[in-house]
Write a structure and sequence with these properties.
Elements: E1 2-7, E2 16-21, E3 24-28, E4 54-56, H1 62-65, H2 68-73, E5 80-82, H3 84-115, H4 130-137, E6 140-142, E7 148-151, E8 154-160, E9 168-174, E10 177-181, E11 204-208, H5 219-235, E12 240-243, H6 249-263, E13 271-274, H7 276-287, H8 294-301, E14 312-315, H9 318-326, E15 332-335, H10 345-352, E16 359-362, H11 371-376, E17 381-384, E18 387-390, E19 394-397, H12 407-415, E20 423-427, H13 431-444, E21 448-450, E22 457-459
Parallel strand pairs: 3-4, 4-5, 5-6, 10-11, 11-20, 12-15, 12-16, 13-14, 13-15, 16-19, 20-21
Antiparallel strand pairs: 1-2, 1-22, 2-3, 7-8, 8-9, 9-10, 17-18
Bound molecules: zinc ion (ZN) (2 copies).
Amino acid sequence: MRLGFYGAAGGVTGSHTVIDLEGFRIGVDAGLFQGSEMDQNKAGFGHDPRSLNALLLTHAHVDHSGRIPQLVKEGFSGPVLSTSATLDLCEVMLKDSAHLMQEASDHASDHERRHRDWKHNRSTPPLYTEKDVVRALGQFKPLDYGKEKSVGELSVKFKDAGHILGSAIVELCLGKKKLVFSGDLGRPGSPFLRDPEKVDEADWLVLESTYGDKDHGNIADRAEKLLAIILETLEGGGNIIIPSFAIGRTQEILYELNFYAETGKLKGVKCFVDSPMAVSATEIYGRHPECFDEETLGLLRSGDDPLEFPGIQYTRSRDESKAINDLREPHIVISAGGMCTGGRVLHHLIQNIERNNCTLLFVGYQAEGTLGRRLLDGAGSIKIMDKQLDVRARIESLDAFSAHAGRGEILKWLRAFKKFPGQIFLNHGELNATHALAEAIRSEFDSVIIIPKAGQRFTLE
Ligand SMILES: [Zn+2]
Ligand SMILES: [Zn+2]
């Protein structure tokens, strides 16, 4: 058996790994490269997609799922195994991804036409269209947590990764040998979701390392910190803009706001979820209670839907979105994309970033090369859609909302192994985070730690 790393190797985006058995090839995830790695999307997959027999998908985030339509367009015709919640979320995510690519392509050709800039051909055709997405979705085959399924010689099982709705850890058995992919590991104690499931044994483990160098703030305190930032901003007459991934963070923030909106401190405050995709994703959350933890099920049984409270408004149309800008009273806007690389959040930044009574609040990871990262690093001036803007708003970050396990949480998850993996491949992390995690694992466990480079292949003996 051989293992090839074609993405999220030395970076956090573009997850794509391939397991090679004699004459049978299985991919795990096929994600988009984002931020400074974006150009790699155009460069193909590093192997022939036509020879892939099946794809296993850990979860719906586009850095794991966003290239599936491209894979299909380039000849992959096998099944895509995922949980049914992941399939539902992918339908929304991938259509949106196709739509964003079309928009970016149209915008670039428009720019050329206006500036007669034929020399610098910036327009590129989209990687795929909605038609490719529909075709790819037709290849999905849902697999429930805990059920075993044969794929070629391998037996596949999903465990709950507790990262976003439907997220999975993948266990693969070949005879008596076991290969495990952690996928993106969630945090214990997150709202809605169960804690990441433990794994008993593995011979080889592919482990994410996003926060291998860092522990997050306490989940228990984060709601109060969120409330404090919101109240301070509202009192100063400003708005709070929260760039957020449509799936996961958005619903977790709503879960926390729900409590204050229902019980008093935020009574009557308007809160907009301004992203058609986040609105759809929130509906999908409502359709998959099989993924919820006991606490959330209890809340629902008591009649409190954590995604509905007085003051909340879900905005789908462009007109509804524009109307938010005319609103005089201070308010909260949760809008995608989470790293400010596109989406409606850019319009809200244009409206609010130069106002010193407003707050821009980050709640998720900001990859290198993204506008979100530049703002977080303290940029004094930024450019959005050809507009130069001075940054006067307060910039805040609450890393306790991260959907990823922090360093200590990853180590704790590793301690649950009864038979510890002899080899661990660390992927999905920027290099300093990955190296720090490698050090921490080496100092506690007896295992060979490998940090694969993109394109590198390993024989598993
Ligand atoms: Zn993820
Ligand atoms: Zn990821």
